[in-house]
Amino acid sequence: MSPAPTTITITGRRGWQPHKHTLTIALIPLLVGAAIIAVWLGAVTLSTGSPVATIFAVSALALLGVGIGILAAKVRAARPLVVRVAATADTVTFDAGVGARTLMRSLAPIGVIMLASLIALLFRGELYGDQGDAIFSGAGRFGSVVFFAVSILVIPPSLRAWRSASGASLTLSRDGVTLSGLRTGGSTTWANIGGTSFAAERATVLANTGSFSWGSRDLASDPVVLADLITHYAENPSARATIGSGTMALLQSGRF
């Protein structure tokens, strides 16, 4: 049984400085867009009276709701100078939290339902046309391409969330560093690490065998603290013998 993650607040150092009002800036367009789409889908569903159109409308609104929920979960999970870490005898793992991953898994069935409803509407002759029983008419029919594309694009990341046992995670062992569950992940030994960087809201491990990186909100831990911790172990080989419970004490002290 894997150890339960612990939340540690780092003191005595400067960490990640997230952009102010990031959540508000990101959520306002989503909420406005969701309201507009909800009104439009409601009107179209009532005018067509089609059960398939109703399924499409519900799936589209569900997708919007899940997207907003994922964004909110990522913002809540990632806080400055806070790390979420689980330790074994010789490893420490920083994960992405459970909120966003649970929502991410729901994207696949929603995407499949939306895609199936769009295809059904197309074959039933209810997707395109200039009559009141068509979902997309006139110039608006190009909007269906967006819904088709979205319904397909949300399926792969959702399947990755189902396949991964722990979701996105960064693991430090006495041998090296492994970033898994992300498209930009990778693995390398300590000897190959040339340092770390943090720029444009991404932390990057610079390695001779190929660099890898994660976004500020990909993991439920301060990205600057994680980058500094990796640099500390890369530059101090003797300290790697304490990776595990020793890392917990190091994080609590803030001296790295």
Order of strands across the main sheet: 1-2-3-4-5-6
User: Topology as H/E string?
Assistant: EHHEEHHHHEEEEEEHH
N-C termini distance: 30 Å
Mean pLDDT equals 87
Please compute the radius of gyration using only Cα atoms.
Answer: 23 Å
How many strands, which pairing sense, and closed or not: the largest β-sheet?
A: 6 strands, antiparallel
What overall form do the CA principal axes indicate?
Answer: elongated
Share of helix among residues? 40-55%
Strand content: 15-25%
> In terms of quaternary structure, what is this?
single chain
> Stretches where pLDDT falls below 50 for ≥5 residues?
none
Number of strands: 9
